[in-house]
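CORE FACILITY INTAKE
Project code: CF-77B
Contact: R.S. (postdoc)
Sample description: multi-component assembly, two entities in total
Requested service: structural model of the whole complex
Turnaround: standard
Below are the sequence entries exactly as provided by the requester. Do not edit them.
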Amino acid sequence: MSKALINKKNKENISKKILNIFKKKGFDFIDLDIVIDTDLLTRRSGEGFKKYALNFRDKSGKEISLRPDLTIATAIQYIQSKKTGTAKLSYFGSAFRLNKKGDLNVFDQIGCEIINSKSSPEYLVLSTVLSVFKKFKKNKITVNDLGLFQGLINSLNLPHRWKLRLIRHYSRKEYFDELLKRLDTNYDLDNEKIKIDYDRLEVLKKMDFNKMIGSRSVKEIIERFEKKIKDPRDNFKGSQSVKIIKDFLKLNMPLSKSANIIKKFVEKNNLKIKNISQILLKLNNLNKKLGLNKDIIFDTKFGRETQYYTGFAFSVCRQNKELARGGEYNNLIKTLGGKQTPAFGAAIYLNQLI
Amino acid sequence: MNKIKLGLPSKGRLKDESIKLFSSKNLNIQNTNSRNYFFNFEENDNFDGIFLHAREIIERISDGTLDAGISGLDLLMELPDEYQNNIKILKKLDFGFADLVVAVPNDWLDIQNIADLEEVSFEFKEKYNRRMRVATKYPKLTEEFLLSRGVIEFKIVGSLGATESYPFTGSAELITDITSTGSTLKENNLRIISDGKILKSSACLLVSKKFKGKELDIFR
């Protein structure tokens, strides 16, 4: 038998076993569409994401993409099904992505997702995934709560627009680092220009407020301008915030010690992070449930590149190979056109297992 | 000896300035008033010339049909990277100056720079549940520029002409376009945003990377 055929058989056998485990845990199997409306992808991740997807035009000229991600495909299917209750779904299939050079990579994945859960789904998903790997020793588990980063930024003494910028661009590491450099030196806007435009404001105020200029109303333009000039431009302490952010992103510790270390960090920097006690409680509970003897790392940088993660995220690695990854994505379904719906899911990477 | 296959722009100021440039090196075109697309130089038999659209000159140098030619830097940079891999810029010339810029309606006084545009693009998407549309003849350069500045919530609308009208006809919210003095943008109630310069362009003498001759060194 050829090597390719052996690989294929192996994949089929392993996927059957994994899907059986998922079934026993109550996940229903769904068959996902192989193509996705490109507009939905860019709506979620912006125009730049198109570079990583294999895109085509159908006969009507509409742009479609081979699914680059199976969580997105699952979320779209959930929206189309018009379900409202909790859905526990599992899938098996390939995701198609282009690398930076433009070469196509195909990733075979098996995943499970809990959508619209009434209780915290992270332990169920994580324990389900870990049960697949229970025979393997020396798995390295890394976890993070991306909601903590958002809380940290919102607690800093920064203009509102800077907080939004840092949160929006957290997943784009290079641009985020550039933003930190700008924040460090307080480089932002041209004050001379603000003066000139302030004169123009008087002209605009005499116009009909409902008049649309380039699809934006006069009212909208005036309101944003007035909000902007009230927001401090150059008298805030950017460098102090940059130091806190950089120190936070260096935190890397055993999960068992994470709640304590984060608490100390918050106190030391005098931060008032909303929901901090809930986040710390969640970490403590997770640590207890997973077992204190497990080697689990809490890394504040982990999971940032997966743009749709909003809270807890994890990965399972063995010998530097990532075997599985999962996380909370509470905004994805809304971005794709559904209602605001909490969701949590994970995928096992078959290519890494064979 | 093989003759050098040369392409010059077929119309407008770019054509006139290109002819002038070659004349300054004693390479005068025979029968300048002829409607023939092919040309030769007086007293120099080393060249076989053809007048072509500026963009086609780049395409023909890239596919090896031409050895050299004059075209705009903006046109070269807008084409896929493989064109730049096949073509060398022998010299940036001192004519055909134009900037590719980002322009917004003049009355968008809250948008002064790219940081503002980035913020408003997110707010716009949240409010209207669609992305801001950018009309342009330069989709590749525009996309690269905006993404590199953190503006990710936008959609390109391809334009073939009269791009300045798009924000006022409901076809786009803002534009990127090539401008030399900015007066057309101004007349159409558009304003270039500060730090919104995508590319500083000029005419360029381009040669195929496969071309090994020395005849064009007089332009260096």
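Facility notes:
- The first strand of chain B starts at residue 4 and ends at 9.
- Residues 114-128 of chain B form the longest helix (15 residues).
Invoice: internal transfer
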